[in-house]
Amino acid sequence: MSVSVRAATVDDVTAVVDLEVLAFVDPWSVNLLDEGISGLLPTTRYLVAESAGGFVGYAVVSVAQDVAELQRIATAPAARRTGVATALLAAVVAHAADLGAERLLLEVREDNDAALGFYGGAGFAEVARRPRYYRDGTDAVVLERFVRMAP
Ligand SMILES: CC(C)(COP(=O)(O)OP(=O)(O)OC[C@H]1O[C@@H](n2cnc3c(N)ncnc32)[C@H](O)[C@@H]1OP(=O)(O)O)[C@@H](O)C(=O)NCCC(=O)NCCS
Predict the structure, then answer these.
(1) How far is Cα 5 from Cα 49, in angstroms, rounded to an integer?
(2) From atom 48 of ligand 1, which residue's Cα is the shortest distance away?
């Protein structure tokens, strides 16, 4: 599938909110998503992926000096395993590199096999664990990769 990635705009808020609720057990509030997409959080960037049929996913990255944090990445269920998250991650990496970040970090639930499969293939390695990090007692796995990686 051909996927393009662009900066999110306020017209994307509804699609992002709907996918957030579908994709995460601890969805962010509409207010937080609206604030972020509106550009009110200066270090945070929202990216949207589109295919010919429209919105298929989004990612959220914040960059502070040499460290970028991938806060969210999600693909619409019907578009999974078609390269959407791969395209979003490439755009996240490009943005982080533009701002001078050297490392890209994230937290993932230890029971999220899809995400762990995706990140493992994208060059991330485990650097820490946060026991009982999530509300339901699930551990968080902290993953990291270099922003610029050898091809
Ligand atoms: C994790 C997620 C973002 C992956 O998105 P995606 O668009 O399907 O990923 P891609 O199509 O770019 O996958 C690229 C590669 O990642 C790996 N991968 C993706 N989904 C996988 C899965 N369910 N199981 C194992 N490996 C997987 C595969 O190697 C895949 O390549 P392949 O399809 O050629 O085998 C998606 O499953 C999702 O939205 N999950 C819910 C939200 C979430 O958990 N986000 C991460 C929170 S930390």
Answers:
(1) 4
(2) 108
Ligand 1 atom at minimum distance from 117 CA: 26
Q: Ligand 1 within 6 A of 42 CB?
A: no
User: For ligand 1, is residue 21 a contact (CB within 6 Å)?
Assistant: no
> What does the radius of gyration of the chain's CA atoms come to, in whole angstroms?
15
* Residues contacting residue 43 through CB under 8 Å, at least 6 positions apart: 62, 63, 64
48: Cβ below 6 Å to ligand 1?
no
Give tens-digit pLDDT for 55-71.
Answer: 999 999 999 999 999 99
Residue 18 lies in a domain: yes
* Total count of domains within the chain: 1
Bridge partners, residue 96, by sequence: none
- 151 within some domain: no
Ligand 1 pocket, residue 112 CB under 6 Å = yes
Kindly report, residue by residue over 105-125, the tens digit of the pLDDT.
999 999 999 999 999 999 999
17 is in which domain, residue-wise?
A: 4-146
Confidence (pTM): 0.98
